[in-house]
Write a structure and sequence with these properties.
This protein has 461 residues and is an alpha+beta fold. The protein has 17 helices and eleven strands. The protein is globular and about 65 Å long. The termini are far apart. It binds protoporphyrin IX containing FE (HEM).
Length: 461
Amino acid sequence: MDAAALLLLALATVAVAFGWLLAGPAAGRLKKRGRMPPGSMGLPLIGESLRIISAYKTPNPEPFIDERVARYGSVFTTHVFGERTVFSVDPAFNRFLLSNEGRDVGCSYPSSITTLLGKHSLLLSHGAEHKRLHSLTLTRLGRPASPPLLAHIERLLVSIEPGPWSESLRREYVKLIDGFFSIRFPFAHLLPFTTYGKALKARKTVAGALREVVRKRIEEIGENGGTNGEDDRKKDMVEELLGAEGGSFSEEEIVDFCLSLLIAGYETTSTLMTATIKFLTETPAALAELKEEHDNIRGMKGKNQPLEWSDYKSMPFSQCIINETLRVANIISGVFRRANTDLHYKDYIIPKGCKIFASFRGMHLNDEHYENARTFDPWRWKINNKLQNAVGANIFTPFGGGPRLCPGYELARVVVCIFLHHLVTRFSWEATEEDRLVFFPTTRTLKGFPITLRQRPESVA
Ligand code: HEM
């Protein structure tokens, strides 16, 4: 046997070994009992990761999903990010995945992400602990109607300059977020110059700052019962957690909890705001209608009057803009789950342990569900009950669903509505540079969509 033949034999052996590793014993088991949804595994080890990454780095990643749906159907198998993954753009199957979280499927994050989030984070908790933390969050965030909270959001949005404390915390927070989407080399935690190493350090700083807040609040409660001298003041989240369930939350639990809210709520809401401005800039008729809505509200209130819940409820076109931005931009393009048991779907079996991606994007941008689905058209949401019907048919899930439904879904809308109100009643703007949306590692505009703001001469605010 010459050297070339030996090399071929070696390569063939390696290929067979890879094939076995990739297919794994579960696939062998399945051959006997049923088959996985069809699909393509791409290259050995890297699978189709490079294809999905390069697609999602463009403003139009749709062909990645479109081609596979055309070839294999709305539930197909691929191999991304080191693992065989079932990809679903099927509304019924996605509903099953969302509503069965914690039973037939569970959400699972790699250990590197667990470390950044903290072990008591809401996003990582399961079972009874998750139920308890989720309902506590929903009770608190699902009540943005409370006048003090509304006033606080407005104050934060329009009148508070970032101080040195919040600015330095913000910088650390950005490093922490970068860590979630970095490539993790082995032992990256020991390498402080890598993105992941820097993120670990930033986590310590942010958690330390939050711990200080918690300790200060504990001291205040000890001194004056937590009222801070203002008897009618409503409790904030930290105070509520300290008092919840007979004070059973530890300091570490409260810090992890607050950190998970920061991580889940900050980037998503600010991206929604930026994407909204981008779409409004590109759709002048929508901007004109939005201005009219907010000028009318301001006209009835008079200058400098704070917004009230009834004002928020009189912003139907703003809600159309938010729905459409959520639908087209897909701030969260879908969620990962892992099968806790063999799942039966149509003629297929998805084996226990298999990773599954419920794609929201694939449903939101499907012409079967929305006419001219890939066009920004906020007026489509003006049709009676359009939102309820789309949510009911499970073709509009920007905030997920089931036990892990985003507890910040109403808060995000309130924040963006108040922001839009002050933006359009006080300013006009134009884009300073060409910019575009990309979707990997997260949905964002490449340059942050820079604009030049001008005070409106006829400002009514
Ligand atoms: C545009 C804004 C937002 C979008 C698109 C969004 C989207 C989502 C989605 C899709 C999930 C479900 C994740 C899953 O099923 O695995 C989720 C969960 C979550 N969101 Fe949001 N979110 C937004 C804003 C917020 C805000 C403002 C907060 C809080 C301040 C927040 C806090 C959370 C938390 C804590 C979870 C985890 C819930 C759990 O695991 O039980 N989100 N979000």
